[in-house]
Amino acid sequence: MRNQPISPNCPSTLHLASLIMGIYSLVSCIGVGTSAHAQKPPAKLPNIVVIMADDLGYGDVGCYGGTGVATPAIDDLAERGLRFTQAYCSAGTCTPTRFSLLTGVYAFRVPGSGIAPPNSPALIPAGTPTIASVLKQAGYHTGIIGKWHLGLGAKPAGPDWNGKLSPGPLEIGFDDALILPTTNDRVPPVLVRNHHVENLDPNDPLWVGSQRPTPEHHDARSHPESLRMTTVSSHLGTIHNGLGRIGYFTGGKTALFRDEDLADRWASESNRWLHEHANDPFFLLVTPHSLHAPRIVNERFQGTTKLGPRGDAIAELDWTVGKVVQTLDDLNLIEQTLIVFCSDNGPVLIDDYQDRADELLGDHDPNGVFRGGKYNVYEGATRTPFIVSMPGTIPVGESGKMVCTIDLAASFAAWVGAKIPDGALRDSIDVMPSLLGKTEATGRTELVQQDNGWGSFGYRKGQWKLVRCDSGAMLNSELKMKKKQIPKYALYHLESDPGETENVQADNQERANQMKKELQQIIDAG
Q1: Which residues have a Cβ under 8 Å from the Cβ of 471 and sit 6 or more positions away?
Q2: pTM over 0.85
C-alpha cells in the first residue's frame, strides 16, 4: 500500500486530507486506481468537459426512452458518441456523489460527507488531490461553473460569507469557479466567484443561520401567504423569491439571485470561460441544478411541457447542455474535446415543494425500468444517463460496460499521462478504454453504491446486486404507502430482473454470503 490510514480520532483538517489520500486499496475485492489496459497518452492534451445534471433519472431523457419531454441537445450528444446503459453515480444523493467525483474516494469513507447544510465547512480539505488538481498538474486550466454543495471555509467555523470563502474549489485544484455554494433550496441565495460572494455590498452584510433571527422575521412557517409554491416540512425557513428555503438569512440584497436566471448564468459563464481558454488544454466541470427542487425555470421554459415545473426543468437543462456544446462547436473544438454527460443521482418527484410533479407525470417514467430513486441505493437511485462524445476519437453507439462517475478522475489521469499522488483517488478505477469505446475494454466488475451516508449500500458484482439496508431511510414512498418491510439483505439478478422485484437470496445463499463479506471488507478498508 502506498499510504496507511491515520487514526480517525484526530479531527484536524490535515488529518482529513491525509485520510482521503490514505484509503486502503482492496484489490482482492475491487480493483482501484489502475487499469489492465496500458494506454499511450494522446500526442496533444485533449480538452475535457464534464456536465453533471442534478436529480435527472435514467428515463428522463429521450435517448434513454423518455417520452414526456423532448431533449434534442442531449440526444444529439448521444448520436455523436457512446450512450452507456450500465453507468452509475456513486450515491443516491448529490453531495456524496460530487465528493467522490472530485476525490475518487467513496464518500462513505469520510464522516460528514452527506447532504451539506448551508453553513457547512469545506468537506474536501485544502490540498486534497482531486480530478482538478491532478489535471492541473498535467498542464490543464481548470474551472467549475454551477452547483457546488461541498461546503466552504475551514473547520469548524465554516463559511465567512462577508469575507474570503476559503478553502473551496480553488484550494483543491480549480483555477476558476462560479458556483451556487449550497443548493437552490438552501440559503444563502447567492453565487460565489472564486473566494467571494458575487456582488455583495459590504454595507449590507450577509447573515446565515439555522435559527429564526428575530420573532418578526418572515419565514415560510409564519407567512405561508407569501409563498408561490407550498412546502410541507423541510423548507420553512427564510422566504426568498416567493419560496421557503432551508435555513435563514438576512442582508446581502445586491447579491441575491433570482431563481429564473440561474440557467442563463451557467450558459453565459461557460461560453465566456471556454472562449477565454480556447487555446489552453482545459478541464471544465459544468453542474446545472435545474431539476433540483424548487424547480423555478426561466420564463422562456415555464409551461412549455406537459409535465409541469419538473418537465420544464428538463427542457431547461437540455437547453443548457446545448449551449455548452454549441460554444465548443463555434470554437471548432468538438473533435478536440471529450464531453461527458451524467447525473449526480436518480430522480425524485415531490421533494417537499408541492409542484404537482407526481400528478402531471402521465406515461413518462423518470426511472425507466428501474426501482427506487433519489435517497436510496436501488438502480433508479444510481444508474443514470451517461453519454461520452468526442467525434473522431470515440465511436458512435451504445455501451453495456459498467462505469461510474467516481472513475472519471483515474480514467482522465491515465489517459493524459497525469501523475496521481501516492494514496490519492484510491477508489477510482481507470475505465478509460471503456469510455473510449475500445472493443477489448472490460469496464468495472464490482461497484459499491451508497445512500446519503445513513448506512445502506448496494454492491453490484457482475450481474448480481446485493442491497444492504441498515437504515429506515431506504423506505421509498411506494413501500411506505404499502407498509412493507425491507429485509436487511436482498439479492437481485439484474440481467433477468433489472427492476429489482424478486429477492433471490434464499436460492443463492452462498453467493449472497460471499457478497456480504466482500461488501463489508470494502467498507472496512477505509
Answers
A1: 451, 454, 455, 456
A2: yes
Of 194, 235, 238, give the one whose Cα is nearest residue 219: 238
Using a 10 angstrom Cβ sphere, with 0-12 exposed, 13-18 middle and 19 or more buried, the burial of residue 290 is buried
Instruction: DSSP for 214-248, please give it.
Output: STT--BTTT-GGG-SS-BSSS--SBEETTEE-BSE
The chain-wide mean pLDDT, for the chain, equals: 91
Tell me if 246 sits within 8 A of 234, measured CB to CB: yes
Q: What angle do CA 447, 449, 293 make, to 5 degrees?
A: 140
Distance CA(107)–CA(103), nearest Å, equals 9
What's the rounded Cα separation, in Å, for the pair 506 and 508? Answer: 6
Report whether the peptide linkage leading into residue 433 is cis, meaning its omega lies within 30 degrees of zero.
no
pLDDT of residue 12: 43
Residue 483 reports pLDDT greater than 70: no
Q: Which three cell numbers stand for residue 404?
A: 461510474
Q: Give CA–CA dist 288/263, Å, rounded.
A: 7
Residue 99 backbone class (left: φ over 0; alpha: ψ -120 to 50; beta: rest): alpha
Strands 397-404 and 81-88: parallel
